[in-house]
Write a structure and sequence with these properties.
Helix content: 25-40%
Strand order of the largest sheet: 1-2-3-4-5-6-7-8
Strand content: 5-15%
Low-confidence stretches: none
Number of domains: 1
CATH class: Alpha Beta
CATH architecture: Alpha-Beta Barrel
CATH topology: TIM Barrel
Mean pLDDT: 95
Largest sheet: 8 strands, parallel, barrel
Bound molecules: 2-phosphoglycolic acid
Number of helices: 11
Order of helices and strands: EHHEHEHEHHEHHEHEHEH
């Protein structure tokens, strides 16, 4: 597989406190290795840790991203919310949008489309999550769902340069289950074929996410179409995260 320019995105979800930030020191040191010069590490902690993490990672090649934002680009009376402008203002370069845990809580394709547009307006790079549920997979609806999520989420957008797609089958998130290699390769190729049409022949990066861990990464990294990984649980321990990166690039 092409192990160059691979992405490793740590999605901390609703975990972590100020002391968790010190634990990534080893990743910062590890990332200085010449061998890693083409890979991209992105940490996406909860909102509360964005600024401290940006500061901690100053003078490093590791970037920071948020895990969501409000769909409204402007400031306004939205208690408890944060917009893309605010995310950008604390030094983030990336943002995860469309995660299934938020879709599950009522986030629609239409809202995700607005969020993506507001993030792009702020020059944030978007990690756009898509994926089918177990029921949809069993009913052989995977392609239909992926197509719908891409077409609606990226509606009225033709330049997709700042969009990285993360294919995360809902049934594999946090379950320890991953798709069969052949199936996964097909899904990734399918996603790429859809975005190539929209993006005037330019290939979009497509990541895989869902139960990636140090044990299954060797097999996952053999799938040539994958451009990187979105890692939840296993990214919270630096040792595991480093292990995943090492096994992918070696
Ligand atoms: P997981 O989460 O690696 O814990 O399955 C991935 C994700 O939800 O992004």
């Amino acid at each position: 597989m092409t192990n160059n320019n691979m992405y490793f995105v740590a999605n901390w979800k609703m975990y972590g406190n100020l002391s968790s930030i010190n634990s990534i020191k080893s990743v910062k040191i590890f990332n200085q290795s010449k061998k890693l010069k083409n890979i991209k590490i992105i940490y996406c902690p909860p909102f509360t840790l964005l600024r401290p993490l940006v500061k901690k990672l100053k003078n490093s090649k590791i970037s920071v991203g948020a895990q969501n934002c409000h769909h409204n680009s402007d400031f306004g009376p939205f208690t408890g919310s944060v917009n893309a402008k605010m995310v950008k203002s604390v030094g983030c370069k990336y943002i995860i949008l469309g995660h299934s845990e938020n879709r599950h809580n009522g986030e629609t394709d239409k809202i995700i489309n607005l969020k993506i547009k507001s993030a792009l307006k702020e020059n944030l790079k978007v990690i756009f999550c898509i994926g089918e549920t177990l029921k949809e997979k069993r009913n052989r609806k995977t392609r239909i769902i992926l197509r719908k999520q891409i077409m609606s989420g990226l509606k009225n957008m033709t330049k997709l340069n700042n969009i990285i797609i993360a294919y995360e089958p809902v049934w594999s998130i946090g379950s320890g289950k991953i798709p069969k290699s052949k199936e996964l390769n097909k899904a990734i190729e399918y996603i790429k074929s859809l975005t190539i049409k929209k993006n005037k022949l330019k290939n979009n990066k497509v990541l895989y996410g869902g139960s990636v861990n140090p044990k299954n990464i060797k097999n996952l990294s053999k799938i040539g179409s994958i451009d990187g990984f979105l890692i939840g649980g296993a990214s919270q321990k630096s040792k595991n995260f480093i292990d995943i990166i090492k096994k992918t690039i070696n």
